[in-house]
DNA sequence: GATATCGTGAAGCAGAGCCGAACGATCCCT
DNA sequence: AGGGATCGTTCGGCTCTGCTTCACGATATC
């Protein structure tokens, strides 16, 4: 009888390409992965891997089995979700990967809603950048990822992941009420301003630079940080201007002027889970709570 | 991680209803089955079984998981079939359950065809009655069942089994050329004849009696046997008349008269495999060989 | 109320499957 | 060309899984 654990190992190897990475992803030693793949070959009686230089690659048969492994593992997760649905009360721990702006504004009210409905259900929230979050999702480190997309920078489709739109969050120009740029009425007044922005290694930082350049501004980024609270503080205290998501601005930039950009760009927030888990009742409950929290925020105009 | 072997045990328990029978079907001890079910409950954290008197029955959650187990096991078998399809030559052993009339006439030419195409592929044929054949199919004792249906006695649908029509085999009235009934031209001349037929515990025996009664004949079954060769011999030697399938009659009743019954009834032969195996190349090869052998027989008129 | 049959639990044992260390092969960089 | 990094595999040793056997209590049956 085939062994699901070994199929999972095969799948991780197929996904990641090397024995070492598969081992790391599964918290095994490379030796264990090697042995599992060997055993799997014995089980099915067909060569699944072959050497290519110092690396190991899947044979045609290996790819066939890895593909089946993926759907089997999804089905297993679906089975677990169906099983959880037979429980009268939701319990257990949901692990969520998110980033700062959402943790600040959306997660707390969502958790309040969730706790009212399912007091037994616990949530752990971990701050991660996008790549780590999605990697952790696939390795079962997390059960749900809160992700974001910026206009024109659509994320690639990820295999085994099911995504759901959550919120459109306006990207606002934040200008201090005091200092050199107070009173600016738009980007056209800010070509010489000091900026604070995310580094250009992450999506928001890439987007904001490209956006400003598209309007003829080469921003002088004096304060580069992914910490939006710090960015907000720098704006409030008059040291810089920034483009800040509404979710953060509405609460932490009440002392600054917030202007809509032309054609009012929005970042799109979404939730993502492993495909097999989309029917899991705890997952659904969390997604509902997040959607309601998002709806409540949208109903209140920013800055109020 | 869920364990496929344990899911298979759950599935067998769901199918058969008791720990002991599941154990027997899997060639385990009852204790092992009990422990596997307990372990499975620990794995999923939900009660899957509960006591009902001295027996054990599935809970709602147990039924949910058992259902998933069935589809998972089918998918595993599909995966194995896909894998086998990557092999250049077919090999291994196919185990077939059949009954006498088919083993006599259809299997030999089919195996000849099969051997020409896939000399590495071996076939074991076991003679079984229908229930034992299907039970053995589900427990992996057999890979393919050759079954039959009689007009008006349709078999019930069996879960997890995929069926394919193979041949319509005419049911012929066989009358000796010598003795009291020689020269009879139809059932109307045979109301007082001695008959040979299958016992009324099996499908052919049930059908033949019901058919004769429908035409006003209460057959005097003097020789009750499932051995069609014996039936044929009894007819040839003038001791009885019988209704014999064309597959047997064409070869073993050349010394008797064969008459079509009114509205020429046929038994319908089919092949059946576990659902997951229908794509398996060896299975497909065997089915094709059987179909071709059947076509060759149909092309030749009976009794020639 | 005797007896068969149900499922479960404890003891013991064989084997599965993990890790760590050592190894050979391959690639890469200088 | 050659040293070092990285690849995958193998071996010894150990732990833990998971089987069987045997014994037991509970339930149904006659």
Short description:
Two copies of one chain form a homodimer. Chain A is α/β, with parallel strands linked by helices and 304 residues long.
What brief labels describe this structure?
homodimer, 304 residues, Arc Repressor Mutant, subunit A, D-Maltodextrin-Binding Protein, domain 2, 7-stranded mixed sheet, two-stranded antiparallel ribbon, 23% strand, DNA-binding
Please describe the topology of this protein.
2 copies of one chain form a homodimer.
Chain A: H1 4-16, H2 19-26, H3 30-44, E1 49-52, E2 55-58, H4 60-84, E3 92-98, H5 100-105, H6 107-117, E4 121-127, H7 130-138, E5 144-149, E6 161-176, E7 194-197, H8 203-214, E8 220-224, H9 228-236, E9 242-245, H10 246-252, E10 256-260, E11 266-274, H11 281-299
Parallel strand pairs in A: 3-4, 3-5, 7-8
Antiparallel strand pairs in A: 1-2, 5-11, 6-9, 6-10, 6-11
The structure holds a DNA duplex (30 and 30 nucleotides).
């Amino acid at each position: 009888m085939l062994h699901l654990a070994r199929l999972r190992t095969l799948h991780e190897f197929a996904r990641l390409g090397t024995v070492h990475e598969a081992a790391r992803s599964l918290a095994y030693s490379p030796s264990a992965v090697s042995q599992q793949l060997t055993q799997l070959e014995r089980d099915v009686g067909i060569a699944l891997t072959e050497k290519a230089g110092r690396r190991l690659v899947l044979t045609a048969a290996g790819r066939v089995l890895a593909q089946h492994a993926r759907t089997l593992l999804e089905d297993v997760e679906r089975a677990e979700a169906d099983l959880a649905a037979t429980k009268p009360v939701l319990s257990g721990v949901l692990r969520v990967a998110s980033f700062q702006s959402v943790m600040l504004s959306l997660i707390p009210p969502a958790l309040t809603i969730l706790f009212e409905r399912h007091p037994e259900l616990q949530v752990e929230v971990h701050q991660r950048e996008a790549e780590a979050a999605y990697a952790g999702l696939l390795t079962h480190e997390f059960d749900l990822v809160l992700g974001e997309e910026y206009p024109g920078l659509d994320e690639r489709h990820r295999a085994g992941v099911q995504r759901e739109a959550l919120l459109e969050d306006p990207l606002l120009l934040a200008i201090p009420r005091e200092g050199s740029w107070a009173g600016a009425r738009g980007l056209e007044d800010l070509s010489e301003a000091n900026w604070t922005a995310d580094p250009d290694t992450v999506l928001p930082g890439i987007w904001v630079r490209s956006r400003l350049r598209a309007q003829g501004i080469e921003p002088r980024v004096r304060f580069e940080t992914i910490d939006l609270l710090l960015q907000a503080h720098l704006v409030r205290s008059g040291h810089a201007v920034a483009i800040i998501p509404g979710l953060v601005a509405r609460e932490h930039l009440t002392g600054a002027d917030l202007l809509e950009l032309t054609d009012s760009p929005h970042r799109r927030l979404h939730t993502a889970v492993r495909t097999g888990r989309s029917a899991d009742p705890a997952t659904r409950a969390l997604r509902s709570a997040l959607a309601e929290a998002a709806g409540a925020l949208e109903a209140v105009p920013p800055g109020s």
